[in-house]
Amino acid sequence: MYLVRRLVTIGGIAASLVLSGAAIADVTLPRAISDHMVLQRNKPVRIWGWADAGETVTVDVAKRKASTTAGADGTWEVFLPSLPTGGPYVMNVTGKNKLQLTDVLVGEVWVCSGQSNMEWPVRITFEPEKTANESTDDGLRMFTVTKAISDTELKDVTGSWQPAGPTTTPNFSAVGYHFAKTLRKTLGCPIGMIHTSWGGTRIEAWTSPATNIAAGMSKDEFKPGDNRNANKASVLYNAMLVPVAKYTVTGAIWYQGESNAGNPMKYRTQLPEMIADWRNVFQTPDLVFLPVQLAPFTANGNNATSYAEIREAQSMAAEKDKRVGVAVITDVGEEKDIHPRKKGPVGERLALQAARIAYGKKNDGASPSLRNVRYYDGTAIVSFRNTGAGLVIKGGTINENPVPSDKLMGFQISGADGVWYDADAEIIDRDRVELKSPKVAKPKNVRFAFINFPMANLFSIGGLPVEPFRTDRP
What we know:
Radius of gyration: 25 Å
CATH class of the largest domain: Alpha Beta
Oligomer: single chain
Number of strands: 24
CATH superfamily of the largest domain: SGNH hydrolase
Shape: elongated
Number of helices: 9
Strand content: 25-35%
Helix content: 10-25%
Structural class: alpha+beta
Distance between the termini: 78 Å
Largest sheet: 10 strands, mixed
CATH architecture of the largest domain: 3-Layer(aba) Sandwich
Number of domains: 2
């Protein structure tokens, strides 16, 4: 009986080897290159996969064709000439075998990534049934990367392209969905989103080993180990970003920072370093990168500043890079919930920034931000840029709390003693606000919305909240 079992086992191994050899000979594709995908328009598009070493592979779609030969390791890639917007198209990939992908669209493609506020699905956000029932749109599609961790770079991910609709949208990233929905209205073309996020994760996990090491991290951090820790350095970069980084995209939206709030000074360098990493791995030097400023949340105290300092680090990244733009959401937080349910304004404001930065649309997509402050006669005159038609006090509800429509809130001033007091504030023209306080005879510094849970109601007439700031930035 033992002999029979052994013979069967050997036969099974032989059969496996034959099948494996056939599989290697076949042209194969990564999961992101599949039915229902959206390909990037207006630039060469990379298609890649695996085949036998030396095998000729041809890709054709929408009357565009490119051929190549697989390398010694069996990998291959081609760049298709710029594709015409629209579809649906059929893509053929031909080697020793032939693959045919159907229902392929061409439009704009973006990555959405970060931690839980990006991962947060439509089904548990504000008015989820209404959002899902009104979402049917074959031209809006999302590829959600299945969570994975790896100490080394992986070749592929698990996931599939899904069109928006009542049964699929509930599981979409809510921020990613609202971004795509708004951008689709603006551009009038198909929008594809590659969603790769993981709640509770730190920026180090999404950054390359080389960058983490250059920033001072020990090489011991990268030794193979516990593959259940999503916060181990570079494991999400390896498993959830690198495998899709050959996909041709325009940009990325990023909602992360809560897990790094313990060291906001370090985040000032980590964020731009990670952006550079992503531009490198996507081989897109002009990749547009749009962070969401952290939502108001009590965190370690309403008047503490850890979240405010992360927001400041995000603003600093945009100040130094014209292809970076922040979405300011200081009006849509929840005091006791780190996951505010209203994701619509977040996606919409990201889309405004995308329209402005990536597509050259002339809009009021950037929130008003500090230009300068001048001090005289016991007052501080604050000037802003990006005010559009002007500034306005917003009444009603902010961060789920009522606010007055006749009182400007959120400003503080201090004198030489560094003690902060709420300021009496008044809009004096389209881009300036005057501040004073009976407790500060000679103002030296100004802060606006610079606490974890600010209640600030200065907006542009176009509807965007003014970006938080402090003039005593170290």
